[in-house]
Design brief:
Layout (H helix, E strand, L loop, with lengths): L17 E4 L2 E4 H21 L2 H27 L1
Antiparallel strand pairs: 1-2
Helix pairs in contact: 1-2
Length: 78
């Protein structure tokens, strides 16, 4: 005989903190990472006057911040 047992999880799933931008709920960690990337871009461009260095530095910073904040948020939910 085969039967299905519904899964009952005791873990509470929280929704990530969001901010409303143009009617779309964005997770806060994404907005923070993008703002940090823009700030790093402007600062690096002002210091080095090299567009290539500014773009690469800000892109690397944004990706690092995005993933680290995502992992921290997931860890804090568990």
């Amino acid at each position: 005989m085969t039967y299905v047992v519904p899964s009952t999880s005791t873990r509470q799933h929280r929704r990530p903190n969001t901010v409303d931008i143009a009617g779309i709920a964005w997770p806060v960690y994404k907005v923070e990472a993008l703002v940090l990337g823009i700030a790093i871009f402007v600062g690096t461009l002002a210091l080095t006057t090299s567009l290539q260095i500014a773009v690469l530095t800000s892109a690397a910073t944004t990706v690092l911040a995005w993933w680290s904040q995502l992992l921290l948020e997931r860890r804090s939910r568990d």
